[in-house]
Backbone:
């Protein structure tokens, strides 16, 4: 998701960039856009890492841990998802059913999140493909302009 800062930046500076890009010749526009793309790509990995860390911190602990306050070690094991068979044997059927229901709800919510993330990934791939086609077209255009300019120049 776009941050508020980047979206406000793009809204605010779009007309200024369009005007300044019209004034520039094609090759300088191409260089400027390439530099911006390199900077954005360089920032992508650290930004993604930061976002993953924030999401990890925002994940709430399992509500099952609250239902089993008299078994603190079980609560910790649930958070780490590492219950031992001996722990399970000591629980009542009701407690086990609560854990099963919680796991099912976690699976369902994670599946929904996965579907949403896959849809976003597909949209981003489509957008990337479109950008790559545009870059290819611009590169061909720049090459043809260079050839045209080279042909116009009188050779000495």
Residues:
């Amino acid at each position: 998701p776009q941050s508020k800062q980047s979206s406000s930046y793009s809204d605010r500076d779009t007309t200024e960039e369009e005007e300044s890009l019209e004034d520039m010749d094609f090759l300088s526009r191409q260089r400027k856009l390439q530099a911006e793309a390199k900077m954005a790509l360089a920032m992508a990995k650290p930004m993604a890492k930061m976002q993953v860390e924030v999401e990890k911190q925002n994940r709430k602990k399992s509500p099952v841990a609250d239902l089993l306050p008299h078994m603190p070690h079980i609560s910790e094991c649930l958070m780490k998802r590492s219950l031992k068979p001996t722990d399970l044997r000591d629980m009542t059927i009701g407690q086990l059913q609560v854990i099963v229901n919680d796991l099912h709800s976690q699976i369902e919510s994670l599946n929904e999140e996965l579907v949403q993330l896959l849809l976003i990934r597909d949209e981003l791939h489509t957008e990337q493909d479109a950008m790559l086609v545009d870059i290819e077209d611009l590169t061909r255009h720049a090459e043809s302009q260079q050839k045209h300019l080279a042909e116009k120049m009188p050779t000495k």
